[in-house]
Structure prediction request, 599 residues.
Amino acid sequence: MNARKVSSASQLAWQLSLLLSLMVLAGALLGSEGWAVSSLQADIALMTDIRLPRTLGACLAGALLGLAGAVAQGLFRNPLADPYLLGSASGASLGVALGMVMLSQLDVSPWLVRAGVTGMAFMGAWLAVALSLMLSWGVQHTLRLLLAGVVVGVVLGAIASLLLVMYPQIQGSVQSFMLGSTAYVSWSACGLMLSVLIVSGLVSYAASPLLDGLALGESTALSLGLPVKSLRWVLLAVLALCTAAAVAQTGLIAFVGLAAPHLVRARYKGIHGKTLSLSCLMGAVLLGGADLLARGLMAPLELPVGVLTAILGGGYMLYLMRGMSPKSSGGRGGRA
Amino acid sequence: MNANSAVVLSAQHVSVLHDDFKAVNDVSITLRAGEWIALVGPNGAGKSSLLKALAGLTLPSGEVSLLGQPWASWHRRERAQTLAWLGQAEAGQDDLTVYDVAMLGRLPHQSWLASPTEQDKAVVEVALKTVQAWEWRTRSLGQLSGGERQRVLLARALAVQAKVYLMDEPLAGVDVPHQADWLEWVRCLTEQGAAVVSVLHELNLALQADSLWVMAEGRLVHSGLPNDPATHQALSMVFQNRLQWLEWQGDVEGLTRWVALPK
Prediction:
């Protein structure tokens, strides 16, 4: 029995890995001139300096969001939880808006502006999560934490909007951030995201028995001898770090963190140690695929990848709602 | 159950506060090895709160000791190996398989992130076969009915191989044949020396226990044998005298049992 279950998890892992490899290859070969493969004529520098880091960056950001989404859904025992639920998206937007306001006053190089804005987005996302934790007095009460996240998200979002009204010159840059884009991901950003992914992946795997225990309720998790409070802090740190790292590099990418764990669970049911890893791969495939579509659908015009994930994610949510029709909701098939 | 059996769990003057409300008020109990106690009382009597306090899931005032040692002196893992908890079904993610859920019962015995040993697998197989869930061990929890799910959760508790089992409404949604099975499992556990405390709403099942603890308004109002008229009186009192008692010559010769029906 166990062998069948493991093979199903490993089968899915192999399929996703294969798909991911093909995507990275396609992402390196395909340019903004459309879907024609132009590897023979393409400038090697163009491929290695722009296309490859961008494609890998999209996959890495997707993997981070997939992992964060799986952690959030396990930790909050809510299939609708997503990586941004503790206010990190609004925090990152406010960070970007503040960064743009400050840097627009100075005469600095565009590279420095980009680096500064990335750093501010990262800090904004982190600080928003820290603020949610402070307002909820820790991690003990998950509902209070979720409500604090909603409040922080709304308030920080409102402050960011206020800045946009006061400084109209930053509107373009902030809006581009909020739409999400993988166009500016560099090799150094890839390195950063890969480091965060490796650390977060290992830490969340080590803490995954807590998520299995929590699936049966907090009392059961405690009765199994799990250090619930400390592991909850660890997983929240993973959630905040993954989300902040992804958002800082690619802006607000919608639905990847929500949809990746759902898509995994539709194919594989089992312990969180495996679903976390598979959600990483699924997130990478989703955002990598969305990046390819964003570049290729209306080439040479490039669509903001966040818009594409929002449209595709909205479609997926409609599909979920279809599964919750009165006919099927009597059973438990409402969830993917 | 032997009155001289070792005390495995005891509580002295335990109270549990929920905000300003005293859910459990100055309760003292003793549980011996090989004993099955049915904890009964009307809704809101404080049964689940007492059970959680005994399981160390809430911090009560008063003293709770497991195997003679106060709670605070127990290491988390050793405590989890000694005392198994089966709570009321809590809503959650249903993506774990039946086998995974039962294997969680072995967590207190495993090193962190270690793969299950052959012994773990054997114990889980026995637990799942005991509750007749082995055949559908690859199904996810979400695909099960309420009663099937409850049996799997029971298998998870059995897999702990604990000395003390605390079960909060273990028979909620379980059909009659599996209720009868559950009675057998409990007797089997107590014969092996384990002690069981179960919150039960079905009084006629509770009356088959070794002893009953009767609770009302946070207090333990009576503790006694199922055939004792004082127990019946206490039960009638806490249930607003809405019980009628019928004597029944039970399945064991010479043993008179009682049946409580609502009136």
User: Anything to note?
Assistant: The radius of gyration of chain B is 18 Å. Chain B has a mean pLDDT of 90. The CA atoms of residues 94 and 142 of chain B lie 4 Å apart. The first helix of chain B runs from residue 47 to 54.
